[in-house]
Amino acid sequence: MTKRIILAAVAILLVIASAYASFFIAPTERTMGVIQRIFYFHVASAWAGFTAFFLCFIGNLLYVWRRKQQYDWLGVSGAEVGLAFTTVVLITGPIWAHPVWGIWWTWDARLTSTFVLWLLYVSYLLLRTLVEEPDRRALLSSLFGIFAFIDVPLVSGAIRWWRTQHPQPVIMGGQGSGLDPTMKAVFFFSAFAMHVFMAFLLVERYALERMQTEADFLAREVEAQ
Amino acid sequence: MSLLSNTAVLLGKELRTEFRSRELLTTTVVFILVVLILFSFAISPTSEESREFGPGLLWLAILFAASLMLQPCFLREQHNDTLSSLRLAVGDPFSIFLAKLSANTLFLLVTEILMLPLFAIFYNVPILPELHYLLLVLFLGSLGISIAGTALSAISAQARMRELLLPLLLLPLLTPILVVSATVSVSLLDRQPIVQWKGIAFLAAFDVVFLTALWLFGEYLLEE
């Protein structure tokens, strides 16, 4: 319990520090101005969300292989936390796009693939609500999670090559991309803070799922008596 | 090889069941026809526009039809609990999937081939010049839809609200197929047709990736 409180405190302090850094330490971007500062929040959330989905995928694979309910808890926690971060990405994106591009939404490659990713994990959580029996729910949703995760590179490939205004990648992009060193430092700090925050949410969600399972088990025991 | 001979026997069973009543084929053909006509009411395209949008609408209609057509695939086996006998009868449960997905691909292709002339007439799009390439795209696309769809119908058959659940699970998963087949078909039906080999290769890659995933994880989908 104390470990979880420490993690919560660290995560919240890191997020506050990264917000301070992105507002006051990072230099103002020349053409976009202040609105560019949302980048530290937007891209960092995207990375944290992808990491959460990846953890969900690992949980799905391990569940199919080992059949321990702990892996199913990891799966559902990863999917829910990932979905929360992707929702932040999908909301902060248009907030940035409206002043810079002049439109809220465009069917550009990365917007579209993120949206499809979001939809896939909404389907994953929806599927979980529609299967009653816990073992069956864990197995079926894990298998769907695996198929969904395999689909992600195909979705982004298809959309990137065949439907082409997102800014070119500035992190790990091609030539001519790149960031001012302070901006880069602030970005990586924000990405780190978001990952710790994601880990905090994941641990809490996992603990909740464990308590839920225990409560269900106890309820059945009481009914049986 | 026992996998192939088992698959052949099971495919025969799937085809016999369907061609006895032809329920699935007739309803799917009528469904695609209705959707295509409603699309043209909704946007009333000119000839140029229908060259541009027609193939996309056709693929969307195929996707919707498939998400309905794939429903009974595993549900049918539940009525008399024939699925467990099937699983006992064959060594490798992958042959059950192979048979079902081949049957579904075939049903989809038959409906598409019946629909193509009507699509050409209603949308005023000449399909004959590049027909063989168009058929190749239809085949690879339908195969991809059937592979993913057969796997997901095994999932949705075990859940509540299955009729709604299958399209919800399947349609986002099939985005790559929709995007690529629609784009490749648009360039095939253009006044100066271009064969986008990259797109055709992508469709084939989608099929291979999902077939491999089904081969690896299929048996867990059929667990009791």
Structure description:
The complex is a heterodimer of chains A (about 220) and B (about 220). With about 220 residues, chain A is mainly alpha-helical. Chain A has helices at about 1-25, 40-65, 70-100, 110-130, 135-160, 180-225. Chain A is globular. The mean pLDDT of chain A is about 90. Chain A is built from six helices and no strands. Chain A has one domain (about 35-165, about 175-225). With about 220 residues, chain B is mainly alpha-helical. Chain B has one domain (about 1-220). Chain B is about 85% helix and about 0% strand. Chain B is built from ten helices and no strands. The longest helix of chain B has 29 residues, at about 95-120. Chain B is globular and about 55 Å long. The mean pLDDT of chain B is about 90. The chains are: A mainly alpha (about 220), B mainly alpha (about 220).
3D shape of chain B? globular
Q: Let me know the average pLDDT of chain B.
A: 89
* Strand count of chain B: 0
- Structural classification of chain B: mainly alpha
Shape of chain A: globular
**Strand percentage of chain A:** under 5%
Largest sheet of chain A: none
Helix content of chain A: over 70%
- Specify the oligomeric state: heterodimer
| Residue runs with pLDDT of under 50 for 5 or more positions of chain A | none
Work out the helicity level of chain B.
Answer: over 70%
Q: What's the structural domain tally of chain A?
A: 1
Of all chain pairs, the largest interface belongs to: A-B, 28 and 30 residues
Count helical runs of chain A.
Answer: 6
Count the helices of chain B. How many?
A: 10
